[in-house]
Amino acid sequence: MPAAGLERTLIRGARVITMDERSGADPVPCDVLIEGDRVAAVEPELEPGAADAVIDGRDRLVMPGLVNAHLHSWEALFKGRYDNLPLELWMLLSYPILGLTPLSPRLVYLRTLLVAIESLKNGVTSLLDDVIEMPGQSIEALEAVFDAYELAGIRASCSGNVMDRVFTDTLPFTDELLPEELVRAARAERRTSTEEYLAFSEEALDRFHGRAGRLRYVVAPSGPQRCSDELLVAAAELSERHATAYHIHVLETKLQAVTGQEMYGRSMVRHLDELGVLTERATLAHVVWVDDEDIARLARAGASVAHNAISNQKLGAGIAPFRRLRDAGVNVALGSDGISSNDTPRMFDVMKAAALLHKVTSPDYATWPSAAEILAAATTAGARSAAIGGEVGSLESGKRADLLILDLRSLNFTPLNDIRNHLVYCEDGSSIEKVMVGGEVMVENGRLTRLDEESVLEELRAELPAVMASHSEVEELNRAFAPYFAEIHRRCCARPMNMNRYSGDERSWLESAPSRAAGGPP
Q1: What's the pTM?
Q2: Which domains are present in the chain?
């Protein structure tokens, strides 16, 4: 019997992709019963009983909502602004070292709503927002992020991202290349101490963790090269005490691979493992420049990887070893990354890009990703990476009712062949009729149910001219670093790698890096 007072919704006669152990990504004819915010049953021909609402599932597909395992909402204001820059030069403009003043909480709120709107309308029911505020994060700015996601109705895990090293100390060769005045300016910028970050995180956990039953706080040291060992370990201990996720950027670019060797004399993955911070709570974003030993360490630790196929291509970072990671038993999720290095948070785009990208790394087509593997990476693996795998990611009794209802009569499914292939290669979000989060309809026929999208966009548009004018001045200030960062990039790309540490399907890409970078970035 249903618990008293719980609203019951029955979706009848649909095709259902459950992503559970029983059916996986195979579409099966089923009914879905929702009680309150949870799935009560997924079975053929359920009785309507005392259902409060019945949804006709004929010619419809029901599937778990998509999980975006790695996102930066900060970049929403820079959509479509940059191109043809590698990560470290792109960061000079999108995450400047000098000259920034904090955004107002209201602007942070509007920026976050923009991300939530586009995510929900394109089938993302859960996201991990690695929130980076420059020049530093305040509890008021983080509250604005949580307020926005609460209003929009999405499930969100939001971080306090932190770095405690001077940015110019996070790159190799700066001592011999950077002018003294630029080093002094970078060192003058305030940094957060380990004690300050722990106090900030404790307050954030107390105020925001568990809010609305679907919002969580995540511990997120930026990356091993940007954080002291003390901070990396303290953040991991905090995540363990509070049973929350530990999110970190690792080995996104060849420059970072060289940095690891310069700083530690070993891989950054090995360094993190020897510090004891690689656990089942840890998700490493990117993980492009890893070898077999790194992958074995990740698998032994039970850590996850957030694979950002579009962002890594746009920034020329490289190709993550998707097949080797999965075959080793590493949980591989998918992320959009930031909305400047990708330009959208749309996960259907990411699924298609990931499925296609890994077909060109090897002529052995038996190793190419299947549509089912890509769907798993965008649902169950994403949920596990955010430490919410017991709650979402699949449609089964007891889990939260985060799901999509798609019209199988749409152009994207006509003619209808393999539904899994249609989702990965054909769907763009336009077939979505309903998006549910916790049993509540958050999107109906392309419109959010909890807020007026146009009023949000209108207010944001009114603020943008002044914001972007100010940011243009900051960009100009930080371009002083560009020729030196370009030389650092060139040197790192030209440094030989030990090809014996990498599998054959990646060597051609790695070996071509010096010739591609010989002229430096544009």
Answers
A1: 0.94
A2: 1-501+509-522 (3.20.20.140)
